[in-house]
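As a warm-up, study this chain.
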Amino acid sequence: MKEVDRPIAISADSNGPKLGLALGSGAAKGWAHIGVIRALEREGIRPDVISGCSIGAFVGAAAATGEFEKLARWVEKLTWQTVVSFLDVSLRGGLIKGDRLIDYFEREIAGLGFDELKLPFGCVATELQTGREIWLKEGSVARAVRASIAMPGLFTPVAENERVLVDGGLVNPVPVSLCRAMGADIVIAVDLGSDIVGRAKRRLPHGKKPAPEPSAERNWAERLLDRLGLNASNGGDEDDLSVLDVLNASINIMQVRIARSRLAGEPAEVLIAPRVGQVGPMDYHRAKETIAEGEAAVARMMPAIRYALGHDGVLQ
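Now compare it with the structure written out below.
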């Protein structure tokens, strides 16, 4: 076997420059982060620091606590019914309070403070009153993640120290800058937005909506999500768009533009871009295919990753 094909074996114990992993926002598309981390791990590549935004914060926190595989196993078993069971509907500030999800996350995955983590970790939120970017690196990890995932219109905001915090994707969808501030010299970033805009038109000819899947008796939460456009992704028929279809597409466009601008000014050494545009914002039950695409994205970028890290395992 050629030298270039050997695992690089970079880890948090290596001397020299620090390796950072910046995990971007993207709702259910974020399960691709699991595939990315797994594929890097197989190559012996382990970050020294992790930063995350929104779903990237959710996955990144699990990696920093050492409970990554526990999260991955749970995610791979998710069904649509399980996803619905975590939805606690709210009528103030957002459709979902998020208490059930975060209670589970804190109990099973990330019930630690930042000072107890195995790896340095930080996540991004947005201050609603001012639009400022907020870096969360102290206190409860689960509470910080809850603020970072508070997608406007979907999850209720989080009140923290007289501030109201929402999704960090509004200001920094792929937090390379936070990763650098935490000491990373080399950054591998994961952008989930490169394949989003225009996905429906690419996936279905003439913008036709796919036939609905047959299903058994559906509960009230599933029917509500159907009406709100948060169930399985529709085909983009402009005559059948819900309010949240429009809101989600608008946020996607905004985050793609912001991410491109931020990455141009704060580039990573390697940018991994999983092709997950076909995954809807609430398609958390489609984990296996999303994770597989994360792994495939790493495979496509391995030449660039090896170049950035060095064929002999020494950071360049």
